[in-house]
Design brief:
The chain has 207 residues and is mainly alpha-helical. 50% of the residues lie in helices and 5% in strands. Strand 1, helix 2 and strand 2 form a beta-alpha-beta unit. Helix 4 crosses helix 9. The two termini are 37 Å apart.
Length: 207
Amino acid sequence: MTIVKGLKGTKLAMTRAGSATDLALRALLRDAGLEPDRDVAVIPVGRSNSAAAALRADQIDGFISSEPGGAVIVHQLEIGRYFIEPLRDQGPKFLQDMTFPTLQASDRYIQGNPQTAERVVRAVAKTQKRLREDPDAGGRVAQKFFATPDLELLRAVIMRQRASYILTIREDAVRTVNQFQKQASVVKGDLAYDKLVAAQFRSAWDQ
């Protein structure tokens, strides 16, 4: 990607070595033909508030994070802007497919509690559908759980993440993530879709 190649010579932050942000940043740079730690300084800074401080102090030129870290920088502190947004079909395919919500449970639990598991899946599907259709609903609910929520910030995060509020776990997305994990030496081989995904709840995904 031409836009990423322009990052040569910059200092970019991630949370910590070996983290998802570290692996994703390095993969993004290599996909554009840049070598991390040689062409671009990759710096661990911890959480997004530390990244914000480093950005203010000109110690870094940018950072990779999940929300609401980016929204705080852009909308609340107004000291940066979004550069690449995988959820808006920017960046390489593997980054676009890495962000989707999941619930994890053991096979033993699912087999022992199939009705409970399905009810939970349906509840999450219903919630995500509501967020897609009424982003302000998320802010109203958040007020009940957070002491001083910034409703505009929450709405910005929901709007930006809305494309990922879908329960369907596609087989091609799993293959893409597998490939990324192998390249990052996280796993040695492909993980079968039916070993990762409880596809028996597929009908609940699409409600």
